[in-house]
Amino acid sequence: MSNQDTTLSPAEDLQSREAFAAMIWTGGIIGFFVIQAIIWAVAITITHSDPSHAVIADLDERVGSWDRRREAQAASDQLGWQTVVQVVPPASTSGQPQVQIRLQDRAGNPVVAEQLEVTGFHRARVTERQTLPLEVVEPGVWRVTADLKRAGWWRFEGHASLGSDQYQFRVTEFLTL
Prior knowledge:
The protein is of the alpha+beta class. 33% of the residues lie in helices and 31% in strands.
């Protein structure tokens, strides 16, 4: 065999290099899209099973009744009541800290509501809303009897009634339990 059979002409060499470059670029682009698809599949899988994402259950009703809810909130704001959520240390060293909800008027006096309903959820677990059972501690102060084990940002929403007065509140509080 001669040496001329294995060497390529400059035109053939250029054509071979261009084919190789086209193959590398095409493979790179396809590889990029495959990696992108894998990332999206993982992201969708994670967010689909993450309890921190939630759909608002009664969104249609809330949108339809916006004016009515805004008027009710304005009437509630005119009462001047305040909601204070606090963690009370346990009475004994072996006890759990307690979450208390206090209603007070403009002057800081307790509001002894006839009815108080509170829902709460940890901000990292929006889908895990719970109606919180309450126990009266003293006039205007209620203790949450549910075991809130997760420290962090909590959202408490509720309403209280005293005679014809209707009070609505939303409180976001950092709890160290």
